[in-house]
Amino acid sequence: MTIAACNAYCAAGGYSYSGLDVFFNWRPNVDCDYTTQATATAVGASECSYPCAGDSGSLCGGQNRVYIYYNGAPPPTNKPVFGSWTYRGCFTDNRVMRSLHKKIDIPGGVTVEKCASECKANNYGISGTEYGIECWCGVFLEGGAKAQDGDCGMTCQADATEFCGAADRLTIYQDTQAALVDSHHCLQTTRSNFKLVAIGKQLGSKTTPVKVIDVNSVPHVGYSILSVRQGCSDDPSTILISS
Q1: What's the average model confidence in pLDDT over 182-201?
Q2: Is the domain of 85 the same as that of 169?
Q3: Which residues contact 169 (CB under 8 A, 6 or more apart)?
């Protein structure tokens, strides 16, 4: 390891700070970041006295001591506003219960602008970028919780000057021109192993008979539907149980 190799490695990943230190077994270690963390404290240069493995004439930090270099490049940012889209923050996501249900492939790599544009073109008012390479769209957030902005620390695949979420983290933007969501509309989404095919709409005084089944009393029957009532679907036979 050399200082030049460390700096080049971090710069290639879009990082403006690079650091060299050593593990407990005295193996060299490379650290990259967009800024120095609040826990960092300056110490005397004599404490960073370990020679670099690839260049004995240079020093590569020490145990629990990091030689830090800065290349002057500005750190990535979350744009507060672009076009009709407004930054809403970093939100949690998971692979079992997605916070946004529609994934869209972006030719040429993901940026927040490209993702938002594709979401808008497909009539979605919320866009989310994840893991630097994924674009997700939706009309509302499905259970995603607000996280610290710093949790969304991966830069976008096609633009290292902006953040695109992280593992299980979404950088969320909302289209202020999009109509507010009516929760009575049919919405496609997922919940664990169940797919929500419709949300019921109030039809005034009209009632619809629903058959109630005690699943515990018929253990030999395996139902794939959690609950049903009058709703909308392209294929009612797949969601209604005959009485």
Answers
A1: 52
A2: yes
A3: 90, 91, 92, 93, 130, 147, 151, 152
Count: domains in the chain: 2
Lowest mean pLDDT of 15-19, 153-157, 212-216, name the range: 212-216
pLDDT grade for 79, boundaries at 50, 70 and 90:
very high
CA dihedral 106, 80, 89, 150 (to 10 degrees): 90
Tokens of 145: 């919780």
Q: Which residues pair with 117 in a beta bridge?
A: none
Based on the domain organization, do 12 and 31 belong to the same domain? yes
Which pLDDT score is estimated for 188? 46
Name the region of 109 (left: φ>0; alpha: ψ -120 to 50; beta: rest).
left
| 157 assigned to some structural domain | yes
Residues spanned by the domain of 7: 3-70
